[in-house]
Design a protein that fits this description.
Elements: E1 12-13, E2 16-17, E3 43-49, H1 69-84, E4 92-103, E5 112-123, E6 126-134, E7 139-151, H2 152-164
Antiparallel strand pairs: 1-2, 3-5, 4-7, 5-6, 6-7
Length: 169
């Protein structure tokens, strides 16, 4: 018997693993593990001009004729969603799971609002964003937002089953 198994091509010398002689492992990805082209630090932007349709008084808050908070939230979520979608695998999408938003200042009708979303962390299927919104004068809102990558077929099947359980009177 021989002290070395190197001659057999196993990359082992005297019971020590020789990493230099081992082949690169082949990685097999499931749909969930497929590498995405997303990376921490990516930024995404969007801009909108505020119209009367986005005013608080059109959304149930009478006498307040400035940009309403729900629309700011919608724009923040839209920038994050649209930004990451091209970087996902086919058949995947994202759903919002957390939105911690602070509305800092009012924005009058007619001003331009720019939303900037930064992907700060990727934790498995969770995508964590820092999002800020600015009008032409100042920062108007900031938030932490989390989205979860989902398989669209499974997601819609689950939602469909839930809808099937609801009966109308």
């Amino acid at each position: 018997m021989c002290d070395s198994m190197e001659h057999a091509g196993y990359g082992v010398q005297q019971n020590r693993l020789n990493l230099a002689t081992l082949p690169e492992p082949v990685k097999h990805y499931s749909a969930w593990e497929k590498p995405m082209s997303l990376y921490e630090g990516m930024t995404f932007e969007g801009a909108w001009r505020v119209t009367g349709a986005e005013a608080a008084d059109r959304h149930g808050n009478p006498f307040i004729h400035v940009l309403t908070t729900p629309v700011v939230v919608e724009w923040m979520e839209e920038v994050a969603t649209a930004g990451v979608q091209p970087h996902l695998s086919e058949g995947q999408g994202t759903v919002g799971s957390v939105m911690k938003m602070t509305h800092l200042a009012p924005t009058p009708i007619g001003l331009l609002v720019k939303v900037v979303a930064t992907l700060t962390r990727i934790d498995g299927r969770r995508l964590i964003f820092r999002i800020e919104a600015f009008d032409e004068v100042e920062k108007i809102a900031e938030c932490q937002h989390e989205r979860v990558v989902v398989d669209l077929t499974r997601f819609h099947e689950k939602a469909g089953k839930k809808a099937g359980r609801v009966t109308t009177a």
